[in-house]
Amino acid sequence: MWDATTALVVGEDRALLYDTGATLREGAAIRAQAQALMGGRRVTHIALSHPHFDHVLGTAAFSGTEVYGAVGVDTVLTGGRDALRGDAVRHGVAEADAVEATDVLVVPHHLVCGEWTLELGGRQVLLANVGPGHSGHDLAVLVPGSREVVLCGDLVEESGDPQAGSDAVPSQWPAALDRLLELGGEDALYVPGHGAVVGAGFVRAQRDELARRFGVS
Ligand SMILES: [Zn+2]
Prior knowledge:
Layout: E1 7-10, E2 15-18, H1 24-37, E3 45-47, H2 53-56, E4 66-70, H3 73-79, H4 81-90, H5 95-103, E5 110-112, E6 115-119, E7 124-129, E8 139-143, E9 149-157, H6 173-184, E10 189-194, H7 200-214
Parallel strand pairs: 2-3, 3-4, 4-5, 9-10
Antiparallel strand pairs: 1-2, 6-7, 7-8, 8-9
Helix pairs in contact: 4-5, 6-7
Bound molecules: zinc ion.
Zinc ion (ZN) binds at residues 50, 52, 134, 154.
């Protein structure tokens, strides 16, 4: 409904999901799709890009997973249940669905300060706390490979203009995009929080546009 992106990174032993959808029902649908893609295997790890309803409210649909977030996101989620519920309803989630999802809200068990390498079995991924920017707690993921992939969360949006809410940190957003570009380099695929996959040129143009919009260099 919000064109939000979810990504699945599969190793030999473990599988990492990046973002979990806007409701428990969406989370359950993502879980089913992920298991189908993996021949029945389960998601073992979850990384949450940032604490906005359309990226985190499906987490409780995944039992027994290790959940990662940027340091400080635990406080925001624990103290911000009502705000999260209100935000979800304002954006069109049914009240009952929003209540259900925030009642069982999962707070990350592992808080990433700087960078954290996760071994998935034959494949390593790097969780990088690149924020703040779009929110106070933006966590990106670098997936190395013949062509690197950077999961950007809402630091980058393709299907609409980047959304700056009350928890955005405009003065630091362009620098967060510089860090994303450093992580992935010129040839990586960049996966926005909303919309289609883009290249470094798009991210750089969005960085410059945000810098102009917010009056920072
Ligand atoms: Zn967001």
